[in-house]
Write a structure and sequence with these properties.
Blueprint lengths: L2 E5 L4 E7 L2 E4 L5 E3 L5 E2 L4 E5 L3 E6 L38 H11 L78 E2 L2 E6 L4 E4 L4 E2 L8 E7 L2 E5 L4 E3 L3 E5 L4 E6 L10 E6 L4 E11 L5 E4 L8 E4 L15 E10 L3 E6 L2 E5 L2 E2 L5 E3 L6 E10 L4 E9 L14 E12 L4 E11 L8 E7 L5 E5 L11 E3 L2 E4 L3 E5 L4 E6 L4 H5 L5 E12 L4 E11 L6 E3 L10 E4 L23 E9 L4 E6 L2 E5 L2 E2 L7 E2 L5 E8 L4 E7 L14 E12 L4 E11 L8 E8 L4 E5 L11 E3 L2 E4 L3 E5 L4 E6 L4 H4 L6 E12 L4 E11 L6 E3 L10 E4 L23 E9 L4 E6 L2 E5 L2 E2 L7 E2 L5 E8 L4 E7 L14 E12 L4 E11 L8 E6 L6 E4 L23 E8 L4 E2 L6 E4 L3 E5 L4 E6 L9 E10 L4 E11 L6 E4 ...
Parallel strand pairs: 9-18, 20-29, 30-37, 39-48, 49-56, 58-67, 68-76
Antiparallel strand pairs: 1-6, 2-5, 2-7, 3-4, 3-6, 8-11, 10-16, 12-13, 12-17, 14-15, 15-16, 17-18, 19-21, 21-27, 22-23, 22-28, 23-24, 25-26, 26-27, 28-29, 31-35, 32-36, 33-34, 34-35, 36-37, 38-40, 40-46, 41-42, 41-47, 42-43, 44-45, 45-46, 47-48, 50-54, 51-55, 52-53, 53-54, 55-56, 57-59, 59-65, ...
């Protein structure tokens, strides 16, 4: 219910409250408003839309000093007053309780302080403040309530006014002679009722008649066209309603059905027997939204029920039962805007469709027809009649629609003001179900009639939905049943089944299978199929075995054997190997059951018990392997494999023949019937095949021997094979042939037939050989060899031109000084040999006639010289020696020894020169070739190293040494300043001072004046340095550069540094002690002696310098 808020703008008193009216408190909470409460300005009320609230003015002005309330006025003459003067004490209207209260008030006592808090008290006043019950400043007991009535009459009167009447107290001012006035007063009324709801009340409830003489009453009333209607008489306005007002003021208004328009004002007259008063009753009708409804569409179990069984293919066909009819009703008091069924509009804007029957679409494909619609626009009531026809079976899905399927058509009703409702017209279609009927097959199954066929659905009732059998394969006691969806079946007896065999010969049993018939929507029915089983008395057979006279049952070939089957074995001759294991099978039949079954002594069944498979293979008498790989008791199929492990001994020299290995097969059934047969395996012999050979290598005087193997491309076969060995003589040589096929052919180049071929001539040798296998099978082929007499040239190879470094290399730096007088050693401190060796190769297939190197004859007229040949001195004075010659390989070996240094190009440094030797070759038929053997001789060069010596300032004696040997230098002969002269020898060729002075006299010594002295140096490096300067700067040195030059002009410079030390020498004076004796003086005791005289000397050492001054006793001596 909606609420509205009202704010009070002046002080009022609550006269009455109907419905939900809440006063809002200062803390935000609210409570119900009570009649009698005084509301201050600012109070807030929440009033429900359907609540009624009556408020009256309230005046609470304080009384003036003269006892008359301030601001009040005396009522005009002739008007009534609510003052005490109009109600004297002792009036019968005043009860003792009221009189006591009034007396307390006059005495200034608040009689409510001892009252319990009223329902309206105890809460803050509306609009704030600390008041109680919404009255600002009210006391905690809730205060007291003054009720004023709208109008000039006071409802409650006592001897004195307890209501703070707004009129002044006239107790002392009322004049006794005032004339009474008519005080009949009736107020207008306004009431509201709802559509279709009568309303009653009393128009005199707000009438005031304080002066009588009679009680107020209604005389008559008028409304609309009804005028002057006497009180107590009911009147009606068509389409609006009915009204009655009684004399006591009570009235009842009943609005016309569905009327919501205006109601004419009701004017009525009130009288008190003296005066009259006209008042108006205003009646307002509030429209009420009328609901709409559908009836007859809530039938439990559906409005219509039809059964698929009535369909032509149903279980109980009944055409009349396929159509059913019914009716539903509707009510829309506000008028029908639309009525639809299954999406089809039947009524639109109050208009009913005029064409019937009207088809309604059926999602299930059936037929819903509306056969008629009736509708009363005045009442809004109507009905719809319809029929439904089931055209076909439906899909009843489990579980929701297992037995019944509902097709629902939505019915929607909407009235003119938009109210709507809907319901479903439900048609229930009952499911039809199948019925399965048990079957018996009159034909018996036996080991001689293993299969039974039939159809279980033939005598079943499928029902309207159609039906199918649950297909599958079912295992029975004696066999299995394959059941198809269309009801057909195939039963297959297992004659090897233990239960079947237990029936024994002639025994009879039965199989019973339960099957399920299911229709299209899942309804099921079960029944049984019964079959008769009979065990006949049968014999036994062994079939599918072939006698060896017809080739046997399996065939293996020795030519498929592998060489890897054992040591020293050869592979079979078939190049594309097949397996040496063959498989096969045969069939046994023992309908009464197998008791024993064996093959080649291998037990497959013993006392009816089948062995596990595969059984382990057994070694046969011929050494091969027989394995029983399987046995199918159901079919009697026995499968086996046979493996040929090795070649067999076939009849000797009988070629590609066969032999057989046989295995006995034995069968006994459970009642003693027996049969036997033979499993034969044919083993085909393998034979060797010799294939002719051609050796593609040619035998010639240059290739005397040919080797090969004739058996390599032969096929030995599984039995292995060997060649007939021997030595065979040919036209040009001989062939040695071994059993393993290897051969060696040796050409005799001196044979007359070979020589007759002449140079370039070609011949051939053909040898026939025989290949024989282990069981005597033979094959022959040939070996063809090509023979050629070559005409060959000669070559000299493995010699290197000197432009590419030559064939050998020797170094002068390895020469020793001991090689001769006045020789110097080579510069290499770690000497290698000065002899080098080498070789080269000559080729003269037709034979060497002459061969020489550097004039040394190695072969002369085909005769080889003895070795080693003596060395010869070469043009450069060295030694060349031919150390060997191998006629078979053509290898010529030599050595070369460097005996002394050579004259290399002048001043060309560490260069080389070559010594060449001509090599000449001629073969027996005059072919010739020449080449050069070049030996490289690497030059040696000198190396000069810096030297140092020292002199002392002021010392002018020579400082000597040798810059080549290091003797006399600071480093000495073992120091870094020792020069290396090299193998060519070396001497000083020039000396240069750091001041630019130089001497390069090649004839002999060199003299160079330096900065501080003079250096003299010989060709051999000996030097002498004499200091000539009187003084030398501190730390001064003298540097001379000398050049060392070897025998072939190679040079190397170095320095000689003379470090000049400062002169630090001082002269040394040596004086001995002297003694004299006074006694030798003339006056002495020994005046005659010479003791007073001492003769002596002293020594002066100038440290090699000149003595310039000597002072003795102050006397200078120069």
């Amino acid at each position: 219910m909606d609420m509205r808020t009202q704010i009070i703008d002046k002080t009022v008193v609550v006269s009455s409250v109907e419905g939900n009216v809440q006063i809002l408190l200062a803390d935000g909470s609210s409570r119900p408003l009570q009649p009698g409460e005084i509301l201050q300005p600012g109070a807030r009320l929440n009033i429900a839309d359907d609540a009624k609230l009556m408020l009256a003015p309230y005046d609470d002005k304080p009384t003036a000093d003269n006892g008359v309330p301030a601001g009040t006025e005396m009522p005009p003459e002739g008007q009534s007053s609510s003052s005490v003067a109009n109600h004297q004490q002792g009036s019968p209207e005043v009860s003792p309780e009221i009189a006591a209260l009034q007396q307390s008030i006059l005495q200034g006592v608040d009689p409510t302080k001892n009252f319990e808090a009223s329902a309206a008290g105890g809460a803050p006043a509306a609009g704030g403040g600390g008041g109680i019950g919404g009255v600002a400043g009210a006391s905690g007991n809730g205060g007291f309530v003054v009720i004023d009535r709208i109008g000039d009459a006071t409802i409650a009167e006592a001897g004195f006014d307890t209501g703070y009447d707004t009129l002044i107290d006239q107790n002392v001012l009322q004049e006794d002679d005032l004339l009474p006035e008519n005080q009949l007063d009736d107020q207008d009324e306004s009431v509201v009722t709802q559509e279709d709801q009568a309303i009653s009340g009393n128009v005199l409830d707000n009438s005031n008649n304080p002066d009588g003489p009679l009680d107020s009453s209604v005389i008559s009333y008028s409304w609309g066209s009804n005028q002057g209607i006497a009180a107590g008489v009911e009147s009606t306005l068509d389409g609006i309603g009915t009204l009655i007002i009684n004399a006591d003021g009570s009235y009842t208004f009943t609005p016309a059905l569905n009327y919501t328009g205006p109601v004419p004002a009701v004017n009525y007259t009130v009288t008190d027997g003296d005066d009259t008063n006209d008042s108006t009753l205003t009646i307002t009708i509030t429209p009420v939204d009328e609901p709409v409804s559908l009836n007859g569409l809530q039938v439990e179990g559906g409005e219509l029920v039809l059964d698929e069984a009535a369909l032509p293919d149903g279980s109980a066909p009944d055409g009349a039962a396929l159509t059913k009819s019914s009716t539903f009703t509707f009510n829309a008091a506000d008028g029908v805007q639309s009525l639809t069924l299954g999406g089809v509009t039947l009524i639109s804007n109050g208009q009913v469709l005029t064409t019937f029957p009207q088809g309604i679409p059926s999602p299930l494909g059936n037929q819903l027809l509306v056969t008629g619609v009736s509708y009363n626009p005045v009442t809004g009531v109507g009905s719809v009649t319809y029929s439904y026809t089931l055209n076909d079976n439906e899909t009843h899905n489990k579980p929701a629609n297992d037995g019944a399927l509902t097709e629902s058509f939505n019915v929607v009703l909407t009235d003119l003001d938009g109210d709507t409702t809907s319901a479903g017209l439900d048609v229930v279609v009952l499911d039809d179900v199948p019925t399965a009927v048990s079957d018996v097959n009159l034909t018996a199954a036996s080991e001689n009639n293993l299969v039974l066929n039939g159809n279980v659905i033939t005598n079943d009732v499928q029902g309207a939905d159609g039906a199918a059998v649950t297909a599958g394969t079912l295992s029975g006691t004696y066999g299995s049943l394959v059941l198809n969806a269309n009801g057909t079946y195939t039963y297959t007896l297992n004659p090897n089944d233990g239960d079947f065999k237990a029936l024994t010969g002639g025994g009879v049993g039965s199989e019973v299978f339960t099957y399920t018939l299911t229709d299209a929507d899942g309804d099921v029915s079960t029944a049984t199929l019964t079959l008769t089983i009979k065990n006949d008395d049968d014999g036994v057979t062994i079939t599918n075995l072939t006698p060896k006279g017809e080739g046997g049952d399996a065939k293996v070939y020795e030519d498929d054997l592998l060489a890897t089957r054992g040591a020293n074995e050869s592979a079979g001759s078939d190049s594309s190997k097949e397996s040496t294991t063959v498989t096969g099978d045969f069939t046994i039949s023992a309908p009464d059951g197998v008791k024993t079954l064996s093959v080649g002594g291998i037990n497959i069944v013993v006392n009816g018990v089948v062995a596990g498979f595969p059984l382990s293979g057994v070694t046969t008498p011929l050494g091969n392997t027989l394995t029983i790989t399987g046995y199918n008791p159901a079919t009697g199929l026995v499968s086996y494999s046979y493996t040929l492990n090795d070649n067999e001994a076939h009849p000797t020299a009988d070629g590609n023949n066969s032999l057989f290995e046989d295995f006995a097969v034995s069968l006994v059934d459970s009642d003693g019937d027996s049969a036997s047969n033979t499993l034969s395996v044919q083993i085909v012999d393998d034979v060797p095949t010799a294939v002719s050979d051609v050796n593609l290598t040619v035998a010639s005087e240059n290739n005397l021997v040919l080797n090969g193997n004739v058996i390599t491309n032969d096929v030995q076969g599984a039995d292995g094979a060997a060649v007939t060995a021997g030595t065979l003589s040919g036209t040009y040589g001989s062939l040695v042939l071994n059993a393993n096929g290897t051969y060696t052919y040796t050409l005799n180049p001196n044979d007359g037939d070979f020589k007759a071929l002449t140079g370039g001539g070609v011949g051939s040798e053909v040898f026939t050989y025989t290949l024989t296998d282990a069981d005597g099978d033979v094959s022959t082929a040939t070996l063809t060899l090509t023979i050629k007499n070559d005409d060959d040239g000669v070559t000299i190879t493995n010699l290197t031109p000197k432009g590419e470094g030559g064939d050998a290399k020797v170094y002068e730096d390895d020469l020793l000084a001991t090689r001769g007088a006045n020789e110097s050693a080579g510069s290499d401190s770690s000497k290698e040999s000065t002899t080098v060796t080498g070789d080269f190769t000559i080729s003269a297939p037709d034979g060497v006639k002459t061969l020489s190197v550097g004039g040394i004859n190695i072969v002369v007229n085909g005769v080889v010289a003895g070795f080693p040949l003596s060395g010869v001195t070469t043009p450069l004075g060295n030694t060349l020696t031919i150390t060997g010659y191998n006629p078979a390989t053509g290898l010529v070996s030599y050595s070369y020894t460097l005996n002394d240094n050579e004259a290399h190009p002048t001043a060309d440094g560490n260069n080389s020169l070559f010594e060449d030797f001509a090599v000449s070759l001629v073969d027996s038929d005059g072919d010739s070739a020449s080449n050069t053997l070049s030996v490289q001789i690497v030059d040696d060069v000198p190396t000069a190293n810096d030297d140092a010596d020292s002199a002392t300032e002021g010392v002018f004696t020579p400082v000597t040494g040798n810059v080549i040997t290091g003797a006399g230098t600071i480093g000495g002969t073992a120091g870094a300043g020792v020069d290396v002269m090299g193998a060519d020898g070396a001497a000083i060729s020039q000396v240069v001072s750091s001041n630019g002075n130089s001497d390069s006299n090649p004839a002999g010594g060199f003299t160079v004046t330096g900065l501080y002295g003079t250096l003299t140096m010989g060709l051999d490096g000996e030097y002498s340095y004499t200091l000539t300067a009187a003084s030398v700067p501190v730390g001064a040195s003298e540097v001379f550069t000398y050049t060392l030059k070897d025998g072939d002009g190679d040079t190397d410079p170095a320095t000689l540094t003379i470090n000049i030390a400062q002169d630090t020498r001082v002269p040394v004076l040596t004086i001995g002690n002297a003694t004299v004796d006074e006694e030798g003086l003339p006056e002495g005791t020994a005046a005659s002696g010479n003791s007073e005289i001492f003769n002596g000397s002293f020594t002066i050492n100038t440290q090699g310098e000149n003595l310039t001054t000597l002072t003795i006793g102050g006397q200078a001596y120069n």
